[in-house]
Amino acid sequence: MLLVGCMALLLSSCAFKGYSFNGASIDYSKTKTITIADFPIRSSYVWGPMAPIFNNALKDEFANHTKLIQVRRNGDLKIEGEITQYSQRNKSVSSEGYSAQTELSMTVAVRFTNNTNHQEDFERQFTATQVYETTQNLSSVQEELVTQMCKDLVDQIFNATVANW
Description:
Layout: H1 2-13, E1 33-36, H2 50-65, E2 69-70, E3 77-93, E4 99-114, E5 122-133, H3 138-163
Parallel strand pairs: 1-2, 1-3
Antiparallel strand pairs: 3-4, 4-5
Helix pairs in contact: 2-3
């Protein structure tokens, strides 16, 4: 019993300030706010709903997985950028010589500013891809594929900005 009590006391006294099980490592005593700008589409090929899907997913990720307060300007952290590329290309060829799979790709350019520690500032591109069978019409799978690519991109951005692993 004494051993169990000691272990419980030891575990309860060990706290990792600012760390959570979702991977965020934020010192909330210094970093309280975040500004996330809407990412406009700067790609030559465009699917209209892509920007709102991405922008909402990015803001939701930080709202749901951090204690940061989202502010319109002058946040302790600032994320801005643009969707720079959205394209598709043949991924594989069937035995008959026709395209069997098509790869859809989305790239975002991100500028991250940490106003509490400028050594963590960066400008970087992130890319996500999804593959679909060429027998499918892009318009029938596009929303699902773009939603998944946005989720992948948001995960990459979240990890690069606040996970610090």
